[in-house]
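Final report, closing paragraph on structural work. Over the funding period we assembled a curated collection of sequence-structure pairs, and we close with a single example.
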Amino acid sequence: MLMHNPPHPGEVIQGLFIELNEWTLNDVAKALDVSPGNFSRLVNGKIALSSDMAVRLSRVLGLEPLTWMRMQVDHDVWNAQQANDHAELKRLVVEV
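Its predicted structure, as stored:
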């Protein structure tokens, strides 16, 4: 079961890493070897986390790449369910 309104990974990066350590976006972008603009879009929730970025974040900030990816998936699925729960769809009966 998904938590209520799971955070975008960018919110986690901002709140648990950048703010607590008083880093700049440029500091972290440089450590990740990505453009500051692209990293800013991620932190601000404008783009989704890629698997490559999950590996980079794991190396630089910690947490396993799959943990980073699960954050993105939880966020995406929760938002998709809010947009449309597809209640009109009916389950097919599977006979085995």
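Residues 65-83 form the longest helix (19 residues). The chain has one domain: 9-83. We thank the funder for supporting this effort.
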